[in-house]
Amino acid sequence: MRAFHPLNLSWLSYGLLKGDKTLIVVNAVGAFLQTFYMLTYLHYCPRKRTVLLQTAALLGVLLLGYSYFQLLVPDWTSRLRQLGLFCSIFTISMYLSPLADLVKIIQTKSTQCLSFSLTVATLLASASWTLYGFRLRDLYIMVPNIPGVLTSLIRLGLFWQYRQVQEKSYSLLQT
């Protein structure tokens, strides 16, 4: 985990504004699971201070965005449009973040720094949300998830091209 990605929290806010119960339930569960993952990661992470600072900074951005929409955008239609754009930016940044390791993958010719299961899960989730947005004709759901499909396909191509070398940081037991 490089930083906190408030995808589910931003989509939860969007669902609350639109009154879409599917968005509310799915993303409330997602927000809970992401929080649980973050706390577990933080517990085992050797660089706790860095991770806490990154998380706090991004939670601050999320809080500022929420405050902006609540206090400075009184018109409901404008608030909904701007919140959709805000959520879209967070979603796109989440999907593009794994590509930061692209140079390292090409230099080492190894996909060890990527998670295959997370890549497949991201492909399935982003494709599902893209289709759901397409079905609703909602660009704020459909468009931000398209980069998730594309970056997942790029990462799957990297897994196909470069093997995933396992580290031998464990000692073998003598029999």
TrEMBL record:
Pfam family, one: MtN3_slv
Family classification: Belongs to the SWEET sugar transporter family.
Keyword Glycoprotein: no
Superkingdom of origin: Eukaryota
GO annotations of cellular component type: plasma membrane
Gene: SLC50A1
Name assigned to this protein: Sugar transporter SWEET1
Subcellular location per the Swiss-Prot or TrEMBL entry: Cell membrane
Transmembrane segments: 23-44, 51-71, 83-102, 114-134, 140-160
